[in-house]
Write a structure and sequence with these properties.
Layout: H1 5-19, E1 26-33, E2 36-38, E3 44-48, E4 56-57, E5 62-66, H2 69-94, H3 98-130, H4 136-163, H5 169-194, E6 197-199, E7 204-209, E8 216-217, E9 224-227, E10 232-239, E11 251-255, E12 264-276, E13 291-298, E14 310-315
Antiparallel strand pairs: 1-10, 1-14, 2-9, 3-5, 3-8, 4-7, 5-6, 7-9, 10-13, 11-12, 11-14, 12-13
Length: 320
C-alpha cells in the first residue's frame, strides 16, 4: 500500500526521533594531540638521532644533532678574539709592565746622582767666582749642567707617575667596546652551535622521526615529532540545541574502551562556528544536525589517552 507523502514524512520523523537514544549531556568525541615538531634553524647533514619512534623522552633530551664543523670553528675563533680583546682592555688598565717601571726608576736614580754632582759643582763654581778665581763662563756652564740634570729628574718623575696610571679614557672606552663586540660575536657563535642540536622542549613520546643519519635537512624542516602529555586533549561535538548548556570551565567525565573509570576533564574551548551544516532546509529536527566542536583537557594522567581514540564525554553536575 502506498502512503500519502505527508504521512510518509511524519513516519520518517518519528523513526528518526526514536533512533536518537543519546543521553542528554553526553557527546561523542576523540583524542587529539598537539605535536611538537623540532627543527633546526639552518640546514645540514644529520650526524646523530639517538631516539626512535615510540621512545619516551625527558624534558631537554637530545633528539638529533647536525654536523657542526663550521659552527665549532666559528666558536673557537670568537673565543680567541674575545680573549685577545679582554687582554688588551686589561693591559690598558694596568699601565706599564713592572720591568718597564724598573727601567724608569733606574734611570731616575742615575739622573738624581748626576743632579747631586751638578749641584755640588755649581756651588763650588759660585764660591770660586765670588773670590775671582774662575770666570763667568765657567759659572754659567756649571749652572747649565745643573739645570739640565734637574730637568732630567723631573722628566723621569713624570714618566714614572704616568707609567703607574692606566691609559687615556678614550683608549679604554675603545678597548671596552671591542671587548663587548667580541663577547656578542661569541654569544652568536654559541647560539648557532647550540641550534645544531634539537632537544625536547618538554617530556613526552616520540611520535615520528622524519630523517635518518646522513640525510640532508633543510632549514626549519622538522626532524623529530614529540607529543608531550600536556598537549593531549579531547574534541567532542555539541548539537546546536544543547550549545547553551555547555560552557568553558565545565567539568566533564571522559570514558573510553580500556580506560580508567575516573577520568575527568575541563572544557577550555567551544567553537563559534558550526562544524556541519546539512544540505537541506532548516527545521526544528534538522537543527540537531548542526554541531559545534569543543575541546576538553584531561585533569590528570593524559598519557592514558591516545590520539584518534574514540571518547564519550559527559557533562558533570556543577560542584556544590
Amino acid at each position: 500500500m502506498r502512503l500519502h507523502p505527508l504521512l510518509f514524512a511524519c513516519a520518517t520523523a518519528l523513526l528518526l526521533a526514536a533512533c536518537d537514544s543519546r543521553e542528554a549531556g553526553t557527546y561523542q568525541g576523540y583524542v587529539e594531540g598537539e605535536y611538537v615538531r623540532v627543527a633546526p634553524i639552518d640546514g645540514g647533514i644529520v650526524d646523530a638521532i639517538p631516539v626512535k619512534r615510540g621512545d619516551r623522552v625527558a624534558d631537554g633530551a637530545l633528539l638529533f644533532q647536525l654536523e657542526q664543523t663550521s659552527e665549532v670553528a666559528a666558536h673557537e675563533q670568537a673565543t680567541a678574539e674575545l680573549a685577545r680583546a679582554k687582554s688588551q682592555y686589561e693591559d690598558l688598565l694596568k699601565g706599564l709592565r713592572p720591568t718597564e717601571l724598573e727601567q724608569i726608576k733606574a734611570a731616575r736614580a742615575s739622573a738624581a746622582a748626576t743632579l747631586k754632582k751638578a749641584t755640588l759643582d755649581l756651588e763650588r763654581a759660585r764660591a770660586l767666582y765670588a773670590k775671582g778665581n774662575t770666570s763667568r763662563a765657567a759659572l754659567d756652564t756649571a749652572k747649565a749642567t745643573h739645570d739640565a740634570a734637574a730637568a732630567s729628574v723631573r722628566e723621569l718623575d713624570a714618566r714614572l707617575a704616568t707609567g703607574n696610571l692606566a691609559a687615556r679614557a678614550d683608549q679604554i672606552a675603545a678597548a671596552d667596546a671591542a671587548m663587548k663586540a667580541a663577547a656578542a660575536t661569541l654569544a652568536q657563535a654559541d647560539w648557532r652551535l647550540a641550534r645544531r642540536e634539537g632537544h625536547a622542549p618538554d617530556g613526552g613520546i616520540v611520535e615520528d622521526v622524519f630523517f635518518r643519519v646522513g640525510e640532508f635537512v633543510g632549514p626549519s624542516q622538522p626532524v623529530v615529532s614529540v607529543l608531550p602529555p600536556a598537549n593531549i586533549k579531547v574534541r567532542f561535538f555539541i548539537p546546536e540545541p544543547e550549545l547553551g548548556g555547555v560552557h568553558a570551565g565545565d567539568k566533564v567525565a571522559l570514558a573510553c574502551d580500556g580506560c580508567a573509570g575516573n577520568l575527568t576533564g575541563t572544557v577550555r574551548f567551544i567553537s563559534t562556528e558550526a562544524e556541519y551544516t546539512p544540505p537541506v532546509i532548516y527545521s526544528e529536527h534538522e537543527k540537531a544536525k548542526l554541531v559545534y566542536m569543543a575541546e576538553a583537557w584531561p585533569d590528570a594522567t593524559p598519557e592514558m589517552l591516545h590520539p584518534g581514540q574514540p571518547v564519550r564525554v559527559k557533562l558533570m553536575p556543577p560542584a556544590e
